[in-house]
Write a structure and sequence with these properties.
This protein is α/β, with parallel strands linked by helices. The chain is built from 16 helices and 13 strands.
Length: 417
């Protein structure tokens, strides 16, 4: 779906298809904000180069000690354009961890395989032509200070929560050309509907490359995938762990778990940071679970890559109405499909039945996991290949969306020394 095809929050909540949401959006002006104009293909970076006589100076700005996977995605997309990118990364304030230490501790540098031009601070930036702010809604003051110091001709603010009022305050900043883009269609729809901000959407992901790739042509293709993943910070507000324990317990009682051949073995991998006690793993199913605590980025995504599927287990409907789920990002990065129902597809409209393991009406996640463990090799890897194709498509789309926000050749006279 393009930026015009996002389901509205109201439609997602009611389970209406995206087409119904689009029809609702056609009501007379005044009932809801106007959608932003359609995006047209552009080669802004090339035209700027010819007009200005130099490459466009682009800043990726992240004030947060998190959202590094989003930074990686935009570094990847921007590397395909004739632009000079500087990444401004803040450290962590409590406890104090410098940006350099942060990237070392998390293994981020090894995830990339190279070190981009990075400044371990967002203070005193160099002049830039275009800026991408990764976490602006959580750092309003710092975002405003960077805009005033770097003086970009144009800037785009990435929205993680489409109903965060901070976005409205950022929109009021004294800057002539601020754009807003969400990380998913439903987040953009929430921003337009609730905050009345013209918001497009774009999703950029880093193409994770495992040192031991699991593909249909791998010698160990029949065994290189093991169980299922739940990823992300160990917080019950984000993920409904109680649900999966209940499903596993019921499957045990019914004699469905543990699995027996020809089904592959069932196992659940929980990856993240936080207090393991939050997970509340029952002793009855503990032998079918493994907790992977505080893995560095390469090991984290490698573990996900080597599982059959990701469980979303959303702890709140907010991830269908206004927020972006990091599990979807992990899926696109690793090629590991998510287990999703129709409500998820209605919100994340770029996901299609063929790029997920779809829950039919009345099915549970356990029903789908049991089915996946009995799928043929061709079926298993067919879905995975389509997820990677989707990620590549979304990156190409982001390449175009970004360039519609960039300065144009007519801005060349505004070039700073």
């Amino acid at each position: 779906a393009d930026s015009q095809g996002a389901a509205t929050p109201a439609a997602a909540a009611a389970g209406q298809p995206a087409t119904a949401a689009a029809a609702a959006a056609a009501k007379p002006a005044g009932t809801r904000p106007q959608r932003p104009p359609p995006l047209s293909p552009t080669d802004a970076a090339e035209r700027w180069l010819k007009a200005a006589g130099r490459r466009m100076r682009v800043a990726i700005v992240n004030e947060a000690p998190y959202h590094l996977e989003i930074v990686a995605g935009f570094l990847h997309v921007l590397s395909q354009l004739p632009v000079d990118v500087t990444w401004y990364q803040a450290g962590q304030s409590v406890p104090v961890v410098s940006a350099v230490e942060l990237l070392e501790v998390t293994g981020f540098n090894k995830l990339l395989g190279f070190m981009p031009r990075m400044r371990p601070t967002t203070d005193q930036p160099e002049p830039v032509d275009f800026a991408v702010f990764v976490s602006p809604e959580y750092f309003e003051r710092q975002t405003q200070a960077f805009l005033k110091a770097a003086k970009p001709i144009s800037a785009v603010m990435l929205a993680h929560n489409g109903m965060n009022r901070a976005l409205q305050r950022i929109q009021a900043f004294d800057h002539p050309r601020l754009h807003f883009a969400a990380l998913a269609p439903h987040v953009a729809a929430a921003s337009r509907q609730v905050l009345r901000i013209h918001t497009h959407w774009m999703m950029a992901t880093w193409p994770f490359a495992s040192q031991r790739p699991c593909t249909s042509s791998s010698e160990d293709a029949d065994t290189c995938l093991s169980g299922f993943s739940i990823q992300g910070n160990f917080e019950s507000a984000r993920r409904n762990y109680t649900r999966v324990w209940a499903l596993m317990g019921a499957a045990q009682s019914a004699g469905v778990l543990p699995t027996t051949p020809p089904a592959k073995p069932f196992h659940l991998h929980l990856l993240g940071r936080g207090d393991v006690k939050t997970l509340g793993i029952p002793s009855a199913v503990a032998n079918m679970t493994t907790v992977h605590l505080n893995l560095k980025f390469p090991q984290y995504y490698d573990q996900i890559h080597h599982t059959h599927a990701l469980l979303m287990l959303l702890g709140s409907n907010n991830y269908l109405l206004q927020k972006m789920s990091s599990t979807v990002v992990s899926s696109l990065m690793t090629g590991t499909p998510i287990i999703a129902d129709a409500k998820v597809l209605n919100s994340y409209t770029f996901l299609k039945p063929e790029t997920v393991h779809l829950m039919a009406p009345g099915e549970t996640e356990m029903d789908v996991m049991q089915r996946v463990l009995r799928m043929s090799r061709d079926s298993v890897f067919g879905v995975r290949e389509r997820v990677l194709e989707l990620a590549e498509h979304l990156n190409k789309r982001t390449l175009q969306v970004l360039q519609t926000f960039m300065p144009t050749d007519s801005d060349a006279p505004l070039v700073q020394a």
